[in-house]
Every structure is written in structure tokens, then in C-alpha cells.
Write a structure and sequence with these properties.
alpha/beta; Rossmann fold; 7-stranded parallel beta sheet; 8 helices; globular
């Protein structure tokens, strides 16, 4: 009997759906048959890649809302429009975020506030908005929070991003203690994933190919991860196969954390 994940009866609310890891998450949920309500900063006419990926994988046209997750009113509108469209939310895939690398001394108050709003508070605010609907999910609701390998270890200059991502581990644990068992909360902490954002970072070096090769050599797997691989984790954790998984954030870093300094 094949090992399959069928989410055809689930509505997934996915933030940051239009690019990078979010697009990989959308693709994998679509492959599992889920109905997807995505949001991003782009207006609908600029979210064509998200729309086409989901439709080609599932045959369904996804629902899309332009929303800035740092704005509470946008989050409330996004959830409200999703409920108006589908009448339910079964899975919250809380993915949206971005690097805010400034350094502890150079970080401005504005960068600190943006980072906490985007990379920490937005996840809590959205979870709170979705809670009544996840409570009502027939098979129990699921929240999956996208953290980062920076929650476990980091490098100089990544402040304050690493602070917010570390706090997400506590958010996953706290929500598990308060909202279980009706809602199951887990986290995913990706390592270095091959996205356009990271490609742009490589391109800041005089020899981008050499810098990519140097970076990949540091991983036991000798490559970067892919958005689809992280999307696969989201789908598995949303499925019945992961029903005993709660309160944990899974580090997926190609073995980098196993490498001893030196």
C-alpha cells in the first residue's frame, strides 16, 4: 500500500506564498490536494507565479489576498476574506518573514521594531486570529511556524533577525501548552535554502560561483536545500502521520549543525 498524504478536505492559510520557501510550500500543499488561501505583498496581478503553480499542481485556482503581515488590520482582513470564501481554516502555514541583518550596535530602533513585527509578532497575531476556526476544524487544527536555523546558532551581523527566530521556538512551545489538544502547533527551522534572495546574496561577491561552492562545501550534504523540500515538511507535519508531533521545532539544515567548529 503506497504511503500517501491526501489533504483534499483541508483549507490551508499560507503567508508569504508568492516566492522563495512560501512558493515551495504552496506547491507541495497543492500536490497534496489542499485548498490554499495565500497572501503576499504583491497585488494579485503580480502573484501570477503563485497562482499558476497551485493551479498546475492541483487543478484548483487558489485564493489570494494582498496583505502585509506586519499590519494587524491586513491580517484580520486576510483571515476574514478566507473565511468568507471557504468557511473554514484547517491549517495555518505561518511562513512570511525576511532577513533583517543589522548587527547589535548598528541596529536602529526602526529595524528592531520591523524585525519583531515581521518575524515574531505577526506569527502570534495571525495564530490568535485563526484560533476560533482552527478550534472548529473537524480533525483538529494545525499551526506550522517557519522559524530558522538562526534560532539554534548564528553568525556575527545577523542581529536582530536571530533574536526573533529564537523567540519563535518559545512561541511554538507556549501555544502548544495553551491550545492543545484541539490545535497542534509545530515549527520548522530551515537552514540555507536555495532561493532568489540567497542567489542575490551570492551575487554580492566578486565571484558568486566560488562563494556558492565554498558555502555548499560546509554542509555534509554538499548542497543547499530547496523550497520544495521545506514544503514537504509542512505537508507532512499537517498530515495525520504527524498527529503526535507538537511543541517541537524541526531543524532542517543539511547536517550543518553536526559539524564541529575547527
Amino acid at each position: 500500500m503506497p504511503f500517501t498524504i491526501d489533504l483534499t478536505d483541508k483549507v490551508v492559510l499560507l503567508t508569504g506564498a508568492t516566492s522563495g520557501i512560501g512558493l515551495g510550500i504552496a506547491r507541495q500543499f497543492a500536490r497534496a490536494g489542499a485548498t490554499i488561501a495565500g497572501c503576499g505583498l504583491e497585488p494579485p496581478e503580480q502573484a501570477s507565479e503563485f497562482m499558476s503553480v497551485v493551479q498546475s499542481e492541483s487543478g484548483q485556482k487558489p485564493f489570494y489576498v494582498q496583505a502585509d503581515v506586519t499590519q494587524p488590520d491586513d491580517l484580520a482582513r486576510y483571515v476574514g476574506q478566507t473565511i468568507a470564501q471557504f468557511g473554514r481554516i484547517d491549517v495555518l502555514a505561518s511562513n512570511a518573514g525576511t532577513n533583517v541583518f543589522a548587527g547589535a550596535e548598528a541596529c536602529s530602533d526602526e529595524e528592531w521594531t520591523l524585525n519583531l513585527n515581521l518575524n515574531l509578532a505577526s506569527h502570534w497575531r495571525l495564530a490568535r486570529l485563526c484560533k476560533p476556526y482552527l478550534d472548529a476544524a473537524p480533525d483538529g487544527g494545525v499551526i506550522i511556524v517557519n522559524a530558522s536555523c538562526h534560532a539554534y546558532s548564528s553568525i556575527p551581523g545577523c542581529f536582530p533577525y536571530n533574536i526573533a527566530k529564537t523567540a519563535l521556538l518559545g512561541l511554538v512551545r507556549s501555544l502548544t501548552l495553551e491550545w492543545s489538544p484541539q490545535i497542534r502547533i509545530v515549527g520548522v527551522a530551515p537552514g540555507f535554502i536555495d532561493t532568489r534572495l540567497n542567489e542575490a546574496w551570492f551575487n554580492t561577491f566578486p565571484n558568486p560561483a566560488a562563494e556558492r561552492a565554498r558555502t555548499e562545501a560546509q554542509f555534509p550534504m554538499k548542497r543547499l536545500g530547496t523550497p520544495d523540500e521545506i514544503g514537504g515538511w509542512f505537508v507532512f507535519l499537517a498530515s495525520d502521520y504527524a498527529r503526535f508531533s507538537a511543541g517541537q521545532t524541526y531543524l532542517i539544515d543539511g547536517g550543518r549543525s553536526a559539524v564541529m567548529m575547527g
